Amino acid sequence: MKLLEYQAKEVLASLGISIPPGRVARTPDEAADACASLGPVAVKAQVPVGGRGKAGGIKLAQTPDEARAAAQQIIGMDIKGFKVPLVYCEAALDIAREIYLGFTVDRDARANILMLSAKGGMDIEQVASESPEAIARLYPNPWRGPLDFELNALVFDAGLGELSRPLVAMIKKLYRAIPDLDALTAEINPLVVTRANEIVAGDAKLEIDDNAMYRHRDLEERYGSVVEGDPLEVEAKKRGLTYVSLDGDIGIIGNGAGLCMSTLDLVQRAGGHAANFCDIGGGAKAEVVENALAVILMNPRVKGVLMNVFGGITRGDEVAKGLVTARDNLHMKLPLVVRMSGTREEEGRAILKQNGIEPGASAWEAAQKIVELTRAGARA
Amino acid sequence: MSILLDGSTRVIVQGITGREGSFHAEQMKEMGTNLVGGTSPGKGGTSHIGVPVFNTVAEAVAATGATASGIFVPPPFAPDAIMEAAAAGITLIACITEGIPIQDMIRVKDFLRGYPAARLLGANCPGLITPGAAKIGIIPQRITRPGSVGLVSRSGTLTYEVGSALSAAGMGQSTIVGIGGDPVLGLTFADVIALFEADPATDRLVVIGEIGGSDEEHAAELLGRGSRLKTVAFISGRTAPEGKRMGHAGAIISGNRGTAKSKEEAFRRAGVAVAETTDQIVGLLS
Question: Which is nearest to A275 in space by CA: A156, A358, A371?
Fold first, then answer.
């Protein structure tokens, strides 16, 4: 789960990190009120993607009227597919310098990496490619966390030695987001040093591991429902499915991410366009299959559905039963091509045949078949 | 011959009395795997599907001489199960469990540094199978046949797809290894390829990768330094839109490395044939 900036800042504040005074505004009037009490503010779109400044999602406001006008423009705006639900009005900082500080997972090292750079405020990826030596790095021990002397060395490495005491203290606070909150990314960029020599989080990015949500129900309850993403993705999530909306017209159901992705590739190769990625995962039960089909059929663009199931832990008979029930319950009339094999495939195929659904032979043939059927507008 | 697992390997299943553990332990036994026991805390001293059940892995190892384990316990308990297996002297650990938090796996990986003999597959992997001899995990035996093609893959179901196509074409497999789809894994492509390279019974190799991370690029670099294996690579996720998450936490595109294009180019530079669909793999391997 990617937290919005104001949510991430609330979490940082709970870890003892200083954040600028700010208020959430859901309406232009609330933004004007926020400015009236905070003074000049930055009115910032709250969306879980980067690049909102370039998209016009951040505006400075000196007066309540300006804040109202800015919020009027920003709330409801579409930024990279996200409708802006609210803005965060934050008091402007008196910036002396900007630092980059971030923890993330280094997949290659199979470890968390801590990065610190005196070149904050800009895209860290650009710094990483243009002057990698400007980023000091540390792989903290995942059991005990970083020790003071390690952090001290890091701070001096980054050329920030004069700030070593406050920075070491701050990094230790931010680190708590890793073991305590299962953060995959905990980043402050810029970390602002004000002219009054305070260290304040100028922005914040926090991503919590979805696999660990079972131990962070409080965060999910508090922050999970603020952003309105794609309505089908929201519906799929409620039903516990891994679903990503795409822009084509062929619904896809597969089990396993790799198989599902290669099914998308095959459909495109056959000249079609997938409407979604939907992985029903291992051990898919009848109700999961029905849920998947139900969500896919909610998409008015969908002209047909291709289901590709190769069973290991997934049992073919359960998948087939679910599919037949789902088709009947949903009164599905669109073409449906099913490619199924693996554990208990004979039983599964028999169930499909008894119910008038012909199983496709190979994934490639099935992909060609669904493309042909959706083009013809025929019924399978 | 094979890598990692053969018919004499003594195997246990952690979580043997659970629904999935029980179902798959039986399948493993049915194909001839030397399944010597299982663990289920509190059920020690009983027997299940014809093998003894122990409370701990250490007890199971002491009583049976097991050296390999398949883990089928739920995500909140799986990280501890992996570490328990390593601490008990198990040298091949296949963790089938899907959905383990990444921070848990990072701690597990650090713990395993203290047990260099312990090799971990996964988590979130289908395990491995040496056709006609033994398997740990959930790869269906029926899609395999004994032979000399090594198959290593990040995906579960795609592995079955390709294994099935190879078998149908008469290309049997020495061992099929699923390394798993999570961002933080045990054995890498390069680790497994090095084992196949050293296995005289393997003469060809199929590598099935997917978008995300750079393990495929590292594998390509290894193969590019010289290999006796005729190799075909396939990458899934060519049409995945950037920045969209496709289920595996691993399949997130970041930077230049990690895209299907980057991975395919790395393999081509290494002189490895790249299949554009799984259907092309058999032809390219002939």
Answer: A371
Query: Which residue in the set B157, B241, B279 is minimally distant from A256, CB to CB?
Result: B157
Residues 6+ apart with CB under 8 A from A312: A282, A342, A343, B126, B138, B139, B140, B156, B157, B160
Beta bridge partners of B236: B210
Task: Enumerate the residues of chain A whose CB falls inside 8 A of the CB of residue B244.
Answer: 244, 246, 277
R_g over Cα of chain B: 18
Q: What is the pLDDT of residues B199-209, one digit of tens each?
A: 999 999 999 99
pLDDT at B245 over 60: no
Q: Is residue B158 less than 8 Å (CB to CB) from chain A?
A: yes
Query: What pLDDT sits at residue B251?
Result: 38
Strand order in B273-275's β-sheet? B134-137, B127-130, B173-178, B146-153, B204-210, B230-236, B273-275
The rounded distance, in Å, linking the Cα atoms of B194 and B188 is 10
B141 close to B31: Cβ distance less than 8 angstroms: yes
Please count the residue pairs, one from chain A and one from chain B, whose beta carbons lie less than 8 angstroms apart. 177
Contact B249 A311 (CB under 8 A): no
B35 CB burial (10 A radius; 0-12, 13-18, 19+): buried
A17 touches A176 (CB < 8 A): no
Residue B211 is predicted with a pLDDT of: 87
Q: Could you tell me if B18 lies within 8 Å of chain A, comparing CB atoms?
A: no
Question: CA separation (Å) from B72 to B9, B27, B63?
Answer: 19, 14, 21
d(CA A111, CA A92): 36
pTM of the entire predicted model: 0.90
Extract the residue ranges of chain A whose pLDDT is less than 70.
122-124, 225-229, 282-284, 311-314, 342-343, 358, 377-380
